[in-house]
Amino acid sequence: MMTNSAPSVDSADAADLVSEPGQAKSAAAEGPDEHATAAHRTRGRLTARERIDLLLDDASFHELEQLRRQRDAGFGIEGRRPPTDGVITGWGTVEGRRVFVYAHDARIVGGTLGEAHIAKIHKIMDMALATGAPLVSLNDGGGAHIQEGVLALAGHGGIFQRNVRASGVIPQISVVLGPCAGGTAYSPALTDFVFMVRDTAQMSLTGPDVVRAVTGEQVGHNELGGADVHSGTSGVAHFVHDDERGCLAEVRYLLSLLPANHLEPPPATRTADPIGRSGAALLELVPADGKRPYDMRAVVEELVDGGDYLEVHESWAANVLCCLARLGGTVVGIVASQPSVLAGVLDIKASEKAARFVRTCDSFNIPLLTLLDVPGFLPSVDQEHGGIIRHAAKLLYAYCEATVPRIQLVLRKAYGGAYIVLDSRSIGADLAYAWPTNEVAVMGAEGAVDVIFRRRIAESDAPDALRARLVEEYRAELMHPYYAAERGLVDEVIDPTETRRVLAESLRMLRSKRVEPPVRKHGNPPM
Q: pTM for the complete prediction?
């Protein structure tokens, strides 16, 4: 009787076959020669694998396509086909929750993106979206691989398309740890959050040489696109850190506040901070005199669990605060006026910053708490010519569109259009609270009297005394703490010391809120 069988392989040959992949993987994990690694370290940068180890839980990383290489091509590539092709891709966990990651290896062809490199990124992005898990990119590369021509450009387009497809579905976090040049810089701009490391990270579309050739301007890499520029001037970077370890630790913290995808709530925790603890300190932190400034950060710290919060865009548009924190164990997004900067007025940058933050929170089911102490919009020719109407409308649109639980709290003043766009009841806030120090009005009493009674004051024999009397009358009749409550625009005037308890219980009540948005292809927000 004859049978079909596979050729026999002796045990020694089988052992060799098993060991060969292991040896190849070890060589790939070590990366290029030690000189390339040493040169990389002299620039103050960790290797791609060291970064992944810091980001993910210990021993949780599963690497994909470690042995992939680029195809042979001309222009000096022949014989230079290292494994990984300059990018490490895979998945692991952060605090036990699955996260996908790709990291450019700047030791290999400068971390530039070629066909094989980009194909690996496409694959990991597709897996993150298909499985509904966050995606973190660790960026450190010189842009497109020039020797591969249009293939590299087309691959970039595939990354951008996937960024957009995943937008609002899974959290996307970009960490810039070295150069991020040319078209590569578009991807971080399309993601939800951008981290940069001071002095070693730069992002720009052109670069100092191109700027110099076209405009004659002399500028260095950091001056053109460094971390401080993008965190304080352009607003591209949300977070900046002095070193990579601190940066990656903060990425882990941010991930702990975000859901895996848009179908899940953010992770809730038990808090050791009593919900009903007294907020007596708030009476000292916030002056009753509406003209005296104070730091809203201290108010946020007093309200949230353990005083811990993560401020987004700390150095950009500082007249409005945007923070992620927990209140009663529930993750909440906080938008707050900042009276210590420009008296807390809204302007173009503040409107952009808050609008983006509101939409991000709404995308990922994070309730919104808005703290108001706002005198209005910044009056200025530059602001009007710069499109303040259009930019303020972005913030208005973001709030009107948001379906998450929304709570507004007026601490002191809330004047004019700024009161409306900062989540007033009229645009859909679920609950509106106010402290007894609140003043909700079209404008301050002095300004209102100057407009309404201009002629009467001018014709008076005692204009100063008349103006003072009219201001007091206007304030007493139209700006007293209960005026908005009497008309149903404020649900309750609350004791400031009870604020934390009221907010926590309100968030708990609103947890089951469900809103079905209208069926449409998409909205058309102001740009």
A: 0.89
